[in-house]
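Priority: medium. Attachment 1 of 2:
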């Protein structure tokens, strides 16, 4: 079966895990980015974040609270192992808060649709809950405004 997002996985056990995880996340003001199941190694990966970034201490506390949940422990049992992690530097950005948090950073944006075949590369100049403004990395420094519905995903373009 391989690695699949929880939203695509059919099974009431995993829906219950999603429900419990969401409840604990809400109590701690934590956002769930994604829950991924790798059935090849019986692993559940819970990717969480906060609007202003999540700390290691917050990740640890969330994981401990999750593990202490009696229902969660009974559902997972010995069959699955789980890990709680934050999105990495190379993770896809899809949510408004991720763009807002990365103002003035270079990104590579993959847009939906067939009109634009290559990603848009530029700097996030402005971002709010509905759209972003990008200064393209070209000689003209063109500006382009995109609604989040137009964006498939974006990745930070890191300078090493």
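Attachment 2 of 2:
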């Amino acid at each position: 079966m391989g690695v699949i997002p929880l939203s695509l996985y059919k099974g009431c056990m995993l829906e219950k895990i999603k429900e419990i995880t969401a409840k604990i996340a809400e109590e701690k003001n934590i956002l769930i980015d994604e829950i991924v199941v790798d059935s090849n190694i019986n692993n559940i990966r819970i990717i969480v974040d906060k609007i202003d970034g999540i700390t290691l201490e917050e990740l640890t506390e969330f994981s401990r609270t999750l593990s202490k949940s009696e229902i969660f422990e009974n559902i997972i049992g010995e069959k699955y192992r789980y890990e709680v992690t934050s999105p990495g530097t190379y993770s896809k950005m899809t949510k408004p808060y991720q763009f807002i948090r990365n103002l003035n950073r270079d990104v590579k944006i993959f847009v939906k649709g067939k009109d634009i075949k290559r990603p848009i590369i530029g700097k996030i100049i402005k971002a709010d809950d509905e759209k972003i403004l990008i200064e393209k990395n070209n000689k003209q420094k063109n500006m382009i405004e995109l609604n989040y519905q137009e964006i498939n995903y974006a990745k930070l373009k890191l300078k090493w």
